[in-house]
Amino acid sequence: MTLTCRCGMDMEKEGFSAGGFSLRRGRCCNQESRLKRMMMSGLAIHNIMMRICCHTATATITSSRRHLFSKSSSNIQSASGWGNLKRFLSLRPPPPPPTLLPHCFSSASSLSSITDASSAATTSTPAAPALSEEDVMMGYVFGKKKATQVAHSLWKRVVQKGDVVIDATCGNGHDTLALVNLVADNTIHGGRVYAMDIQKVSLETTSLLLDQSLTPDQRKHVELFLMCHSKMEEVVPSDVAVRLVVFNLGYLPGGQKALITRSETTLLALEAAKRVLAPGGLISIVVYVGHPGGREEFEMVQAFASELPVQNWVCTKLQMLNRPSAPMIILLYRRW
Predict the structure, then answer these.
(1) Could you tell me if residue 123 is inside a domain?
(2) What is the pLDDT of residue 169?
(3) Which of 29, 257, 274, 324 pairs as cysteine with 56 (C-beta 3.0–4.6 A)?
(4) DSSP-derived secondary structure letter, 235
(5) What range defines the domain where residue 10 resides?
(6) 115 phi and psi, to 5 degrees?
């Protein structure tokens, strides 16, 4: 059989033999595709010798192993052909590196679970972090937070799970709901909120809000009373240490503005709160002065706080000076 490359060179004269395998004219030049076809055909290939001539390549198969890639063999005529062969072999992709597991994982299943968790973490939206008391206070200073938000944030520094607190003016129930979330624990008897208001519509609104926002177990931590805040001692047991008493003075938001808290009854309520409050407790008062009678009630609260003995009480007022109608926060802390 005569072996001839497309370049016209007689391969047999150059010392190449077909080894029983026929190479057709024009197909011997594509060494890579020719090699792949031979490997895919399942032939028993013992040795592969290659030679690069000009812009062509010739593949020859021999049954002898001792001439495999030998530079001294007559099948390879030049050093440049050997270099081209090594470059061709380098085109074969290396085997993939083994997967290395961290020391803390011993199986691929552990790694897959971590991969799934990391992918889920990247796709899920992180929850917004809760604002600290300092952040809320700075927001109030910059006009971004309301007085009630500042009061709620300060309650967290005083109240713990299982404490007893009083909402003296429950209104629409937002303060009551915040207090329940602060004191309610896993037991039915741990933590108690005594909430009261003189208006029946306030209790109905508060009860509806609590039913919608709390679980049945949490709802059991609240007691609602239709009564004046000056009579809080009638519903709070005398042997109970109250940690917090909350006042939100003024009129019911969305209700009749003529129905407001009065200075006379508010003073009595403050006196009662002072008696039931435990050491380390807080009286939190948000006073609204933009309605008729609001300024007089604020002045009464301020006078009451000013007369408390400094040895036992720390009294603070937060007020916006260039907004005379803005609500003010008055905090009365009882020392230990």
Answers:
(1) no
(2) 97
(3) 29
(4) T
(5) 1-96
(6) -65, -45
Distance in angstroms (rounded) separating the CA atoms of residues 267 and 282: 16
Q: Which residues pair with 245 in a beta bridge?
A: 166, 283
Structure tokens at 307: 């007369």
Say which CATH number the domain at 256 has: 3.40.50.150
Tell which of 96, 124, 145 closes a domain: 96
Q: Yes or no: say if 304 and 249 are a contact pair by the CB < 8 Å rule.
A: no
Q: Is residue 282 part of a domain?
A: yes
Same domain membership, residue 29 and residue 138: no
Tell me the per-residue pLDDT of 20-70, one tens digit each, with 9 for 90 and over.
444 444 444 444 445 445 444 444 344 444 443 444 443 433 434 444 444
**Residue 103 domain-assigned?**
no
Distance (Å, rounded) from C-alpha 260 to C-alpha 265? 11
Q: Is residue 119 part of a domain?
A: no
Handedness of CA 147, 148, 149, 155 (dihedral sign): positive
**Beta-strand relationship, 164-167 and 242-248:** parallel
| 179 and 61 share one domain | no
Decide: 254 and 310 in contact? Cβ < 8 Å: no
302/313 Cα distance (integer angstroms): 14
Task: Choose among 157, 176, 174, 173: nearest CA to 165.
Answer: 176
User: How many domains are there within the chain?
Assistant: 2
CA atoms within a 13 Å half-sphere pointing along the CA-CB vector of 250 = 20
How many C-beta atoms lie closer than 10 Å to residue 174's C-beta?
18
- 254 pLDDT band, cuts 50/70/90, is confident
